[in-house]
Amino acid sequence: MVAVNDKFPTETKFVYVPITPETSDIKACGIPGPLDFDKEFADKTVVIVSIPGAFTPTCMENHVPPFLEHLSDLKAKGVDVFIVVAANDPFVMSAFAKANKVSDDSVYFVTDPDAELSKKLGFTLQLPPGFGLRTGRYALVVKKGVITYVGNEPGSGLTVSSYESVIAAL
């Protein structure tokens, strides 16, 4: 499992659908493309919040919204980029961003294809048949490629990966 002071896994590639004026409607689909963590964010402070699934009760109602509501507080603490990640397909993650009214260009809702990053970190979640392997519920703070906070939820609650825990760690 990953720990504080570990290097963030190199060659991490997410899949991302940028929201443009032409694709801002929730019914509009953009074109997915790779988002290379090393190229885009190597010199930045990044908060990554992983959720088991977009549009699920805890993720939609309690986990992601506080981060978005307090984005200015994260930025005041030095955060350059906020990423929400799940194993959902990139079109679902794009719709999830739109449903959350994301318009800030420092916020990304991305796909962890086949939960590869989460596997490397040791933070996957095996759900019952029909739901399959998912990204676990966790939060990371990565500063210039080094992990400075790890909050992997020990159960089904929302504690160490919450907004309150992450902001306190910054």
UniProtKB/TrEMBL annotation:
SUPFAM superfamilies from the UniProt entry: Thioredoxin-like (SSF52833)
Superkingdom of source: Eukaryota
CDD domains membership: PRX5_like
Protein name, per record: Peroxisomal protein
Cited function: Thiol-specific peroxidase that catalyzes the reduction of hydrogen peroxide and organic hydroperoxides to water and alcohols, respectively. Plays a role in cell protection against oxidative stress by detoxifying peroxides.
UniProt similarity note: Belongs to the peroxiredoxin family. Prx5 subfamily.
Secretion signal, residue range per the UniProt entry: none
Species: Myxozyma melibiosi
Keywords from the UniProt entry: Antioxidant, Oxidoreductase, Peroxidase, Redox-active center
InterPro entries recorded: PRX5-like, Redoxin, Thioredoxin-like_sf, Thioredoxin_domain
Pfam families cross-referenced by the UniProt entry: Redoxin
PROSITE patterns: THIOREDOXIN_2 (PS51352)
Domain Thioredoxin: 17-170
